[in-house]
């Protein structure tokens, strides 16, 4: 009975806070909301597993085989390569295009990738999260935080949108509070070098040197260099296709997320309309590779 009473009180606090920032209070009990940090709302998490089904048991999920097939090849762009070679090939490609990566995306998508990434940022609810943390009466700034991880985001194109949405720079400068943080993780050191340089140019050196608002970390999506339950939000934009073992990457995403954390993936998909599919395939298989070769110079 005591637990139920505390739970009802927490739900009331959540609803009151959501009303304060003008958001809809239509979330089901176990649908995670980005509006509140997990530490502030410990009961706002995904529905607990029943302990009987191995796929829903957090203890067992990381013990599943990393590769349930006997396939020895995997996709790399528009060709198949040995699984053992994909990671090195991906690293070579992105090392060669790090400086021109964002320009390449502009050319390949006609600038649409910027619209898609803006929408991804909107879907995260980070702006509302920032407002909630500033106005929350649930605790002090020392026990409220919200940590975001952007995987395969080396040049910072997505992360910079998150920093802007949460006003990380202004908050750090005005109060020294760094409870809103964004971590960029990428397997490629050259991409990270470009991203960190652009971050200093855009936000100033303090964003990295004097606070933890924005940080860059090398790591593999299949075995991230972070502790369990570290992040409230995990995003990956146009990066999942480059992962050798997607299942392993998804398991590790689950591992590093806090209970109630959110996973958002921005990626290309299939086109169902037959006419559009012809146009899409022609553009994907002929135009995009040509643009990539010209920009990369190979």
UniProtKB/TrEMBL annotation:
Residues 48-73 are annotated as: Disordered. One of its GO terms (biological process) is methylation. The keyword rRNA processing does not apply. Transmembrane segments: none annotated. One of its GO terms (molecular function) is 2-methoxy-6-polyprenyl-1,4-benzoquinol methyltransferase activity. Pfam families: Ubie_methyltran. Residues 56-65 have a biased composition (Polar residues). Keywords: Methyltransferase, S-adenosyl-L-methionine, Transferase. PANTHER family: 2-METHOXY-6-POLYPRENYL-1,4-BENZOQUINOL METHYLASE, MITOCHONDRIAL (PTHR43591:SF24), METHYLTRANSFERASE (PTHR43591). This is Ubiquinone biosynthesis methyltransferase COQ5. It comes from Ditylum brightwellii.
